[in-house]
Amino acid sequence: MMYTLLGFAFLGFFGCSSAEFALDEASAWDTGEALSEYGPDISLRMDIQPTGDGYLPQSFQLNNSSWKNLVVPLQETVRVEGTIVGFDSNPYGSFDTVVPGESEIPIEAYVEISQPGTINGASTNTNEDSQSTPGSFSLNIPAGTGYQFSVIPLDPSDLPFFVSTNENFTQPATLLDIDLGSGYPVYGQVTESDGTPVEGAFVRLIDTNTGVEGPTSTTDDDGYYMLRATQGDYSIRVEGDPLKLAWLPTVETELIFSEDAEFSNVNFDMGNLSTIDVTGYVFGPNNEPMGSDVRIRFTSLNLDNANGKAIFETSTSALSRLQEDLLPGRWLVEFIPENTETSSVAPLSQIVNINTEGNLGDIILPETVLLNCKIRDVNGGAAENALVVLKEVGFDNQIVSGWTDQNGDIEIEVSPIDLDVFISPANTDLSSAITYIPFNPSTDSCDRFNLETGDIFSGRLDGPEDAIGYASISIYDEDDNLYAQTLTDESGAFSFRIAF
């Protein structure tokens, strides 16, 4: 595989005064005491959405430091472009005549540049512009270091995929030409324990270091698949076609493709795949038929005779009926009703054992509960115009939200399950922070829905030539929970509070 990188011109960095602390894009912020009291596991991300066309959205990582008088240097936009080529074993689209393949043929491919854990980056398909050169791509990203660059072939797809890490794109223009070559064959057969071939299973390689997934090979009627790869460390995964073979367990194994290897043969024994017909009817809290408005997610906890783990979804029929083929074993079944403003039906989870009998009977979904809460500010007064967001833990992480009235009161229907509650103070309340509260309406009282003071976070967004005014700033944790949100003023300055 050939990889050529050319850069043009130099992107300069800018300094800051001794009274300010400057940040490099996607670097760790050094903030010492402010985070130490919350423990070593706190990791936050600052997402910036600039206005206008001057800068792209970009992220900065926050680990440990002082949160005041920060200067956040937005990075200029740089362009990365190039061409993807590879070996085409069937250049003329016909198998009637035996012809040699051709090298360095332009390839239709998915190209992505990203900084893991941030919003920095972009993606595209080659040939996206009908006027462009075949196999070419062009992406605009914020200048920075530590990027991940990946290429997944689409047509032809029987080629190796490409992943490169720790790429630095700090120059106004970078040219990348990638030759995927032909790679080496990775092949095998997917069968049941008795040798019965498994047709229609998806098989793909996954880069061990990055988690990037390569193209998919579908097993034929004899259970055989074929992939191509370059030497490296992979895992190879078998899973079901979600439209035709959703219940098939996922099985994954390591594959170390050594430098002296010219092929790899990996076979999969899926175990006994005999299924049981599972049926049932789903009703609402008042025994009303739910029709086709309920999605059902099956997650295997333990399979009796098959290998691997299965996770898939289906839905009830118009007659409220559940009917699905399941492998014998122990399953977590989640019933997720359609989330509408007028719905009063909550989700439900059950653990079921599927052995020889697959009749689940009638499933009655619970009713939502009505919360009447008073939200108080840091002084104990009514928190007027506060935004209350309640996110379900598990299921689909569905969200309901509402605003408090002038008395700090809110009335809202929620599911009687574990919830993550986020309370955002009104824009005029500068003494309170977005406050997070874990909550279960079945066991907890919302009397403790009180805003917290938090810690002040302040600074300025700067560009190479001017301040960045009216940009949106959001602070998230590693689970994408929102901890703070604000806009910079005309001079690029910002100030808000964070509470944990």
Give your account of this protein's structure.
The protein is mainly beta and 500 residues long. It has 4 domains: 103 residues, Immunoglobulins (Immunoglobulin-like, Sandwich); 86 residues, Sandwich (Immunoglobulin-like); 89 residues, Immunoglobulins (Immunoglobulin-like, Sandwich); 85 residues, Sandwich (Immunoglobulin-like). The strands form 10 sheets. Strands 1, 7, 8, 11 and 14 form a 5-stranded mixed β-sheet that branches. It has a 5-stranded mixed β-sheet with strand order 3-5-4-37-38. The N terminus is likely disordered.
Q: Poorly predicted ranges (pLDDT <50, ≥5 residues)? A: 2-40, 92-99
Structural class: mainly beta
Give the CATH level 1 class of the largest domain: Mainly Beta
Distance between the termini: 48 Å
Sheet with most strands: 5 strands, mixed
Q: Beta-sheet strand percentage?
A: over 45%
Percentage of residues assigned to helices: under 10%
Determine the CATH superfamily of the largest domain: Immunoglobulins
Tell me the number of strands.
39
If classified by CATH, what would the architecture of the largest domain be? Sandwich
Shape: flat
